[in-house]
Design goal:
By secondary structure, this protein is mostly helical. The protein has four helices and no strands. It has helices at 3-18, 21-24, 33-59, 69-86. It starts with a helix and ends with a helix.
Length: 87
């Protein structure tokens, strides 16, 4: 077993032991600082993902023409990269 497998297994075990729905309820955040940090990081990650999805949905034609998404994303990245180089 590799150290990466050990890390994966021990992480899953820790999550199973410490991240039950009861533990993650807002009222329980103050009981365990580790759980509070995990919950805050999770909430932040969720906000980042949702904001990214909102951006993609409003700046591309993914809802009406999803097949265009790869080209639209390439264009966005290239225009952003070129814009940053000009600064």
């Amino acid at each position: 077993m590799s150290s990466l497998d050990d890390l994966y297994s021990s992480t899953l075990l820790w999550i199973e032991q410490h991240c039950t729905l009861v533990d993650l309820r807002p009222g329980n955040y103050n009981k365990d600082p580790t759980i509070r940090q995990f919950a805050l990081a999770y909430e932040f990650s969720l906000l980042v993902v949702l904001n990214s999805l909102r951006y993609v949905c409003t700046k591309t034609d993914i809802l009406s023409e999803p097949e265009k998404l790869p080209d639209e994303v390439r264009q966005m990245v290239l225009s952003n990269k070129n814009g940053n180089q000009k600064s």
